[in-house]
Amino acid sequence: TPRRFSFNDPNGACGACDGMGVRRGIDAESVVPDGARSLRGGAIAAWGPADGPYYLAMLDELLGTIEVDANRPWRDLPPGLRRKILFGARSGKNGGVPGIVPALERHLRDPDLDTDEGESSAPFFEEALEDFLIEERCSECRGTRLGAVARAVTVAGEGIARMLSSTLSELRATLAALSLPADRVVVVERV
C-alpha cells in the first residue's frame, strides 16, 4: 500500500529512528569533559554537581557494581575500565556494570520512567542532558527515513529511496526511460 512508502506513516517509517532519519544519543566524550576530575570529584558531568543527591546516588550505585578508585583522576583509570564504566559490562559485582551512556539513553527514550514522586522524568532528563546529546544519521535506514519494506523495493534496479532523493527532472527522466514487460505495465498503471 502507499502508506508503506511514506516516512510520515508508521507503516512506512524506519522503526529505528521513527522516520526521522537521525537518532539522538548521548555523546560519550561530553559525559566526562574533564579527565583531571575523579569520579568523586565530579568527572561524570551528565550526573550534575558532584555534591548533588542524584550524583551521589548514581556514584553509590556504580561503586556497588565495580571495583574502582573513585578518588583517582578519570584520565588515570585504565582505558578498559573507563569503557566499562561508560558503556557497561556483564561482569562485575552484583551481576555487572549497567554503563552510564546506556542508562542515560534509556532515560531519554522512555517517557514513562518515574521519579519517586510518580511524575515522568523524561522531560527533566532531556532538558538536563541537552548538552550531552548528539544526532547521528540513522544506521538502519542510512538517513532515508523509510522502513525496511520500502527500502527493499527497486524500480529498474534503482532503490526507491535513491529515486525519492532525486530531483523531479532526474526522476522524470528515469521513469520515462523505463521499459517494462507487459505483465508489469498492468501493475504500474494502477498505481
Task: Give a description of the structure.
The protein has 191 residues and is mainly α. 36% of the residues lie in helices and 7% in strands. It has 9 helices and 4 strands; from the N terminus they run E-H-H-H-H-H-E-H-E-E-H-H-H. Strands 1-2 form a two-stranded antiparallel ribbon. It has a two-stranded antiparallel sheet with strand order 3-4. Helix 4 packs across helix 5 (122-128). The longest helix is centred in the N-terminal third of the chain and has 11 residues, at 53-63.
Map the helices and strands.
Layout: E1 22-26, H1 28-31, H2 53-63, H3 79-87, H4 100-109, H5 122-128, E2 133-137, H6 148-152, E3 154-155, E4 158-159, H7 160-164, H8 168-176, H9 182-190
Antiparallel strand pairs: 1-2, 3-4
